[in-house]
């Protein structure tokens, strides 16, 4: 990766991380409610019966409530588990499922571990991001787990990244390893950014 792109990404991530840490608890609660409403509408519109999502950290737009309600509605939700080799394993979310601290201190499910290909048959992927560009490029947090997952899928379903409203940007620094997303979900809106990924 050219150093300039690497440096731009690092600086942007640091800025976004600092902004997220400054959000009030009430702003986080409101964001979580908005994300649940937007994701509920998205899965209804797409007719989702199986999907991937993730368990948000305390500084991310909250997904826990959405996951809990999706499971209660009968949607099969796969949650990621980080591996040391840079790939993701998956576990099926269950009502009142246990959560443990994963490889990087992220909240991850406890349960039967399914391999990386378990995600190949979902209807939609909902993934975290630091920011998303209006052209569909996603800025992650630099470990490459989701880029590897998306890049390895033979037939990738729609992919929506979850960010705060202020993190939908005109332009995102990117390189050949970065994978685009179909759309973005914020607390107030869901945007389709590219009709298909491939």
Total beta strand runs = 12
- Total individual domains: 1
Please state the average pLDDT score: 92
User: What share of residues is helical?
Assistant: 25-40%
**Straight-line distance between termini:** 22 Å
| Assembly state (oligomeric) | single chain
Name of the CATH architecture: 3-Layer(aba) Sandwich
Strand content: 15-25%
CATH C-level: Alpha Beta
Q: Which series of helices and strands comes N to C?
A: HHEHEEEEEEEHEEEE
Low-confidence stretches: none
Task: Note the total helix count.
Answer: 4
Q: Determine the structural class based on helices, strands and strand pairing.
A: alpha/beta
Summarize the biggest pleated sheet.
Answer: 7 strands, mixed
Instruction: State the CATH superfamily name.
Output: NagB/RpiA/CoA transferase-like
- What is the alpha-carbon Rg in Å? 16 Å
Describe the protein.
By secondary structure, this protein is α/β, with parallel strands linked by helices. The chain is 29% helix and 22% strand. It is built from four helices and twelve strands. It has helices spanning 3-21, 25-46, 64-72, 145-152; strands at residues 50-52, 76-82, 88-92, 99-101, 107-109, 124-128, 131-133, 138-139, 159-162, 168-169, 183-185, 190-192. The strands form three sheets. It has a seven-stranded mixed β-sheet. Strand 11 (183-185) and strand 12 (190-192) form a beta hairpin. The two termini are 22 Å apart. Belongs to the 5-formyltetrahydrofolate cyclo-ligase family. It catalyses: (6S)-5-formyl-5,6,7,8-tetrahydrofolate + ATP = (6R)-5,10-methenyltetrahydrofolate + ADP + phosphate. It is an enzyme of class 6 (ligase). Keywords: ATP-binding, Magnesium, Metal-binding, Nucleotide-binding.
């Amino acid at each position: 990766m050219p150093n300039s792109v690497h440096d731009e990404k690092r600086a942007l991530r640091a800025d976004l991380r600092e902004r997220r840490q400054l959000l009030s608890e009430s702003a986080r609660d409101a964001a979580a409610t908005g994300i649940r409403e937007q994701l509920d509408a998205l899965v209804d519109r797409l007719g989702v019966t199986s999907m991937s999502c993730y368990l948000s950290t305390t500084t991310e737009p909250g997904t826990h409530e959405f996951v809990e309600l999706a499971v209660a509605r009968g949607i099969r939700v796969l949650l990621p588990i980080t591996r040391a080799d840079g790939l993701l394993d998956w576990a099926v979310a269950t009502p009142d499922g246990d959560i443990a601290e994963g490889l990087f201190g992220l909240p991850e499910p406890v349960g039967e571990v399914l391999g990386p290909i378990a995600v190949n048959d979902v209807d939609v992927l909902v993934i975290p991001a630091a920011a998303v560009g209006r052209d569909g490029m996603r800025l992650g947090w630099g470990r490459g787990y989701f880029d590897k997952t998306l890049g390895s899928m033979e037939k990738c379903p729609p992919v929506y990244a979850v960010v705060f409203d202020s993190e939908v940007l005109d332009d995102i620094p990117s390189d050949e390893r970065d994978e685009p997303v179909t759309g973005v979900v914020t607390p107030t809106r869901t945007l389709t950014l590219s009709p298909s990924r491939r």
